[in-house]
Specification:
The complex is a heterodimer. By secondary structure, chain A is of the alpha/beta class. Helix content of chain A is about 45%, strand content about 15%. A 5-stranded mixed β-sheet of chain A has the order 3-2-1-5-4. The N and C termini of chain A lie far apart (about 35 Å). In chain A, about 40% of the residues are buried. By secondary structure, chain B is mostly helical. The chains are: A alpha/beta, B mainly alpha.
């Protein structure tokens, strides 16, 4: 059974910091688009929010076209030593998933730099929209989290 | 049915195994590592991959998306399809990757 221990904003930040340092140590540079609940947590981190989700996530959902980053992600999949250590795993997503977002999402995205790693996260509004379409209880809880901690502009 | 319609109903995981399989296949060390993993006795799809689908899967991973239509036509003549071979790209199990 996959573990579901990704809950706090700092966990996402710490993970990206580590990978950014690692890539820099190898003189590599890579770009990741991060979506899903991990991206919402990263927005929360940037807003100084320390509180986590009520229920944990089992994975992060990155997308990349960089070989070095894809290799790291493959090392961190379900059942890996990474999951054993962290309590969650990496679930590489295909470019295809970005079709769920409005075509203009990049205009509103945030770009973050972690040494050898550039992370692009859609805006909270863009992240929430596909979740609201699905309407599953967990997705609605993520929306509620974004509203409660004021990381969703203008609330709802 | 056009190819994009056929591939439309693949899962995100199917699409990911294709996209990242192709990306990593270009690196000879990663290619060997993936093959080693899929042929590992612990891999639940080892026999299926080795006995039947390995040549087709290798053809898909060695090609790029620009060749997809041509590949699909070739596979159809051989009794398969690009969609069915994408689904045969084995997953990676982190426990022994």
């Amino acid at each position: 059974m996959p573990r579901r221990e990704l809950r706090y904003p700092h966990q996402v930040h710490d993970w990206l910091s580590l990978w950014g340092k690692f890539l820099r140590s190898k003189s590599e540079e890579a770009t990741m688009i991060l979506i899903g609940s991990a991206a919402i947590l990263l927005h929360a981190y940037k807003h100084g929010v320390q509180e986590g989700f009520l229920d944990g996530s089992m994975d992060v959902d990155p997308i990349t076209s960089d070989e070095s980053l894809a290799m790291l992600c493959y090392e961190s999949q379900i059942g890996s030593a990474f999951e054993l250590k962290n309590g969650w795993h990496v679930n590489l997503m295909p470019d295809h998933v970005l079709l769920e977002f409005e075509t203009s999402w990049r205009e509103r995205a945030m770009k973050l730099h972690y040494e050898g790693l550039i992370v692009i996260i859609p805006s909270v509004e863009d992240l929430i929209k596909p979740k609201l379409k699905r309407g599953e209880p967990r997705d609605l809880r993520h929306r509620d989290y974004a509203v409660r901690y004021r990381i969703l502009e203008g609330g709802e | 049915m056009i190819l994009s319609e056929k591939l439309r109903y693949l899962s995100y995981q199917d699409h990911a195994r294709l996209q990242y399989g192709r990306l990593l296949w270009k690196n000879p060390k990663m290619k060997e590592r993936l093959l080693g993993h899929w042929l590992d006795l612990r891999h639940p799809y080892r026999d299926r991959f080795q006995e039947t689908y390995r040549p087709w899967v290798e053809r898909v991973l060695s090609s790029d998306s620009a060749s997809d239509e041509k590949l699909d036509q070739e596979f159809m003549r051989e009794g398969e399809s690009l969609r069915s071979i994408i689904k045969e790209i084995p997953p990676v199990f982190g426990a022994f990757y």
